[in-house]
Design a protein that fits this description.
Number of helices: 10
Distance between the termini: 14 Å
Largest sheet: 7 strands, mixed
CATH superfamily of the largest domain: Medium-chain alcohol dehydrogenases, catalytic domain
Shape: globular
Helix content: 25-40%
Amino acid sequence: MLTIDLNENKQLVIVQTQNIKVKSEQILIKVYASGVNRADLLQRKGQYPAPIGDSDILGLEVAGVVQEVGDGVSSDWLGKRVMALCAGGGYGELVSVDVGHCIEMPQTYSFAQGAGFCEVFFTAFDALQQYPNFGSDHTLLVHAGASGVGTAAITLAKALGAKVVATVGSEVKQKACEQLGADLVVNYRSDDWVTSMREAGLEADVIIDPIAGEYLHRDLNVIARDGRIVVLAMLGGRFCERFDTAKLLQKRAHLIGSTLRNRSSQYKSELVKQLLSQFGEQLAAGQLLPVIDSVFPWQQAEQAHQRLENNENIGKVILVHE
């Protein structure tokens, strides 16, 4: 089969690889679209290797059509349009995925929308799950609010009736988050989000933070008592020199490091079930929509990565397979 891989110059190119064999409890998907994630960018730099036993091919989410099922999987899956989390391999023509990580696509979804759903919505949902019964009485602060995870988090939190504060880096991204329903959006280039939240009388029960670095110190200034700070990445650096442990104790706050990729298959399957239990009706009705920033042909994977690297995107960057 064909897949995207790195050449000797670390550029993304299409190459021929061995065909995939579907394993027990898995389904084989013909890929029509793949989501691009920052994890892909880190992996190609050697900073986020695939867990042992998983595919080294880039790509953590896809949308496509089921071509084959493994032992233990109902034949009812055959021919279905699905979207799925992948343990790598999503940039290939075909990918074999644990059936528990797959969802039948809503009829109104395009393949591009399907490929932009799983990684960001499950990551955001997992973060919100860290606070018991998060809902209408609570407030979410999400940094990088216009990112794929950020837009998904806003969508889920508003569906639950919560208030949402988002931080962004441009007026265009500010408007995008406001259109998704965020109650307060702060452009960190012109305003201070700690001051803005205090002036609005808001504290965050959950903070979704892919920035880390010195943001962790500032998160403690706006976290509510018993709140959760869920760190997803470290775009702002791996160290925080001014972290105030006294504030962490005063607020009884929880500092949680979370990644989805290296979770067990069982954990991911349970997460899928929980999201469908809580939001299945809205999803089927097409009310949970990923924000699609841009769609690139499969052959332009390098340009797609560059758009994400430059932080130009609002929502998801997608590769479509022709």
